[in-house]
Amino acid sequence: MLAAAIGSFVLAIIAFAGDKLVPIKNRLNFYKPMGALSGVTTVAIVIWFLAWGFLEWRWGKRAVGMSRINRVALALLILSILLTFPPVVDLL
Length: 92
Description:
Elements: H1 2-20, H2 22-27, H3 36-59, H4 66-83, H5 86-91
């Protein structure tokens, strides 16, 4: 759950940066017909897999307190939704 929340948050941050900063938008254009969205989703998926692998490596054989992890994941998901919601993004 935490890796998915990290991936969602990275997606929101990169999409926000790509919308606001032209150099980042240009760097994220991996596939010309699709535009910057191709880079945004690719980078977010790579970060999600890296976070998933790292968390599995760190917590694979340990008991982890899910209450705190779920709260952090929920906070990241809420921030992700806010950063992809146009009225909020337009204020920034």
